[in-house]
Amino acid sequence: MGEKAEEILNQVLPQMSDATRIQQADESADSFMTALHTLAETCDYDTLKVDLIRDRLVIEVRDSKTSERLQLTPDLTLEKAITMARQAETQAAHGKLLRQTTEESDHNEINRISHTRNEASEDADKRDARGGNSSSKRTAKCQRCGFSQHQDYTKCPALRSTCRNCKKTGHWDRVCKSRSVRRLEETENDARDSAFL
């Protein structure tokens, strides 16, 4: 080794081993950089000072992904390393905040849906208790044929049939309303006739 290199190594290595500083868990990138600069001021690094600070930042930054990105960056300068460390720190903080906001939003949406369903269920229970929506009414009958309700009324078999009772098209005699009106009239007539006897 050359005489100049030995002189530099003799100055740098002991001082660097005394100044091994890693980023603390609750320490920001800016605070870490300030501490590294303070440590470097006490050493006689001359031109190596900036490079050594950059290298400490790359190696000792708390986030391993940031450290990897810094190590893989070609022609990395101290300024570029500081900028990348700050960006990674800001991105991590924003990501954490976004995840919290999304989780809270999802939780609120789930609660809202659950609350709405519970209210609907309670309303249905109240209607059932009053007899307003009993299970017999839920299985509605078709007004044309008398069978269970069709999803599409055009598929009703009585749609084009003629009623045997009133001779109208579109329903069967089993559900004919004219028949019930006629029965009511006959019952009223029978009641009048018996009143005269």
Automatic annotation (TrEMBL):
Residues 162-178 form the CCHC-type domain. GO terms for molecular function: nucleic acid binding; zinc ion binding. It comes from the Eukaryota. Residues 101-130 have a biased composition (Basic and acidic residues). Residues 89-141 are annotated as: Disordered. This is Uncharacterized protein LOC108629314. It comes from Ceratina calcarata. The lineage of its organism: Eukaryota, Metazoa, Ecdysozoa, Arthropoda, Hexapoda.
